[in-house]
Amino acid sequence: MKKIFYGIAILGGTMIGAGLFGLPYVTMRVGIWVVLAYFLFLGVVSYLIHYLFAELALHTPDYKRMPGFAKIYLGKKGKGIALASAIFGLSGALLSYIILGGAFLYNLLSPYLGGNVEFYTLLYFTLGALIIFLGIKTTSSVSFWGLIMFFLILFLVIFRGFPYLETSNLLADKINLPDLFLPYGIILFSLWGATLIPEIEEFLGKDKKLIKKIILPSVLISTVASLLFVFLIVSITGDKTTEFAIDGLRGVFNNGIVSLMFLLGFLTTFTSFITIGLTLKKVFWFDLKINRTLSWFLACFPVIFLFFLGVQDFIKVVGFVGAVMLATDSILVSLMYRKLGIAKPEVISKVKRFVVYPLILIFVLGIFYEIYYSFNFVWFTTF
Question: What is the assigned CATH class of domain 2-382?
Answer without folding.
Answer: mainly alpha
